[in-house]
Amino acid sequence: MKEFYKQLLENNKKWVETSLAKDPNYFADLAKGQQPPLLWIGCSDSRVPANEIVGAKPGEVFVHRNIANMVVHSDMNMLSVLDYAVNVLKIKHIIVCGHYGCGGVKAAMGNQSVGIIDNWLRHIKDEYRLHDKYLNSIEDEDARFNAFVEINAKEQVYNLAKTSIVQGAWKSGQDLMLHGWVYGLNSGFVTDLNVTISSNSELDQVYQFNNL
To answer: Which of 64, 99, 123, 179 is an active site residue?
Structure first.
């Protein structure tokens, strides 16, 4: 255990040395501030590294991660990240990226209690209820699982659009586009789910704020 910890520190030193060898001002420039064009909302799964997937450098992606890449309207952590990204950093794009093989989505499809996370998974179970006819029509279990991963990512894009933060940005004329992706662990490729939202006119009227 101690050796693993020591190796982490050694890895950091090597990374610093390599970075400075490529650019002596690398860290000095990073310290001046950030102006990333993208907010990434992804899963906490260690196999889904946001920057590496899109080939981005440090400073180019603002990141929020949680179990199953959820956008929950009572989650102050997510809302705080979203507010800072939209209203301070003025990001242009938000990507919600799920991934095939997501353990959180898989657990939400079952009936076993897995601890305190049950309360978080409830939000995903609610989505299954909304799409149960379609999902239950898929006989192959793996195909049903993959379909639900995609549905979950799409639903989170719509949840983003429903927030007063995002709608306020649109109302003020800010350029902001929301996208849904799914990442393939076994391929490295992302699938664009073709759900891109850039105004609240694309939402059901009941979700539209008219007084922002």
So the answer is: 99
H-helix segments, the chain:
2-22, 26-30, 50-54, 76-83, 103-108, 118-130, 132-136, 141-161, 164-171
Sheet containing strand 177-183, strands side by side: 61-66, 38-43, 93-99, 177-183, 190-197
- Condensed to tens digits (0 to 9), the pLDDT of residues 169-188 reads 999 999 999 999 999 999 99
- Is 203 a residue whose pLDDT tops 90? no
Q: Is 131 a catalytic residue?
A: no
Pairing of strands 177-183, 93-99: parallel
> For residues 152 and 148, what is the distance between their CA atoms, to the nearest angstrom?
6
CA quadruple 199, 201, 207, 211: dihedral, nearest 10: 80
Annotation says 97 is catalytic: no
Query: How far apart, in Å, do the first and last CA atoms of the chain sit?
Result: 53
